[in-house]
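dumping this here before i forget
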Amino acid sequence: MNNILLITRREYLTQVKKKSFVVLTILAPVMLAAFGVLISMMIKANQTEAHIQVVDRSGLFAPELKSGKNVMYHNLGNSNISPEKELCHSTETDGFLMIPALKDHNFDALESGTELLVNKKIGFDTKQKIAGDLKKIIQKHKIKALGLNRQQIDDIDKNFDLKVESLNKEEKADSDLAFGVKSGLGMTLMYVTFMFIIIYGVRVMRSVLEEKNNRVVEIIISSVKPFDLMMGKILGVTLVALTQFVIWIAMSVTGALFLNTGFSAMQKSLPGTEDHAMMQKLDFSQYATEISHILLGLNFPLIILVFIVFFLLGYVFYSSVYAAIGSAVDNETETQQFTLFAIVPLMLGMYGSFTIMNNPDGPLAFWLSVIPFTSPVAMIARIPFGVPLWQILLSFVLLLGSTLLMVSVAARIYRIGILTYGNKATLKEIWRWMRN
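structure:
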């Protein structure tokens, strides 16, 4: 046990004293936020403003077509203009929307005769926006033809806001915003766990492979057991990952508290804050405050505990696999045929967890969060929605037992493979090492 602690301490201090660790730990959240802003700017930069000339011979659409941020409508009325000629000579016009006359209230003929003439490609979103605008207008006129007035038409189009109330006093029904926040939190924690298990697991594998190729391991195992060396490496890198997690969690909680207090103070200082209509205009501050309240209202001690425990056990589970792979091969090229055994189950858990967002208590969500191969990511994705305690304990016991079993199996492979050189290990040989 003392040797494991010594190797763990050495691995941990070696990693955390590197400048790259400090820089990555501090800058990673900033870089992630900057990356999100950059993606948003790139999406916005690729958006173009389409100028559409509308020739409406029906007289129904042009007065009601409203220009938006990406589509600008220019009403030409019942004009006899030649679209082909205008498109060839105009650089400001992106297309002509040709709407035929309405005859005998035959809206189907009008719809089939409507064309958008262009001389260059237009975006899919632009096409969908124009089609959506036309659909809304023709829908209103179809309803109006039935003898309904505008007030009745608007009343028909009014959205239905379904209020959900839970009879269980311990579980409140989530609003749409709360459900979105929990989904985002669950997917973020799940993705971070997935990436860290792979990144740090590969780091363990490369460390084992490097020491094996340098023959340093022959000197080390003369003083310590192969099992102690393997566990020391795994636990040392695990503590490095946990250190980063603790720092990032502290930064996240601090940010949530800042949003909550900062925006609340700003709202109180504004005149007329009791006017709900006025506050609706402050979309950013309002949503930021609501999101902050939702986050702070979650059971964060349980979420953090489950996150750390399942990440820790999942990391040890898969790092044992990576350590065994590193000891069984001679170069990184040969690791590719074995790493699938670690990556595929994690990917099944991650992509399967997308269904958890729609039904957190469904049968697939339950089994993904219980099976040890997928529970390190699936349970973390599910925990913000609330998971019964017995399911958490069941998943924990199964994962803990599987982790101990995997460590034992990996240690058998590591014990023999770490001293095997110049011989490409096959699955049959690895199976023999496990049995021995």
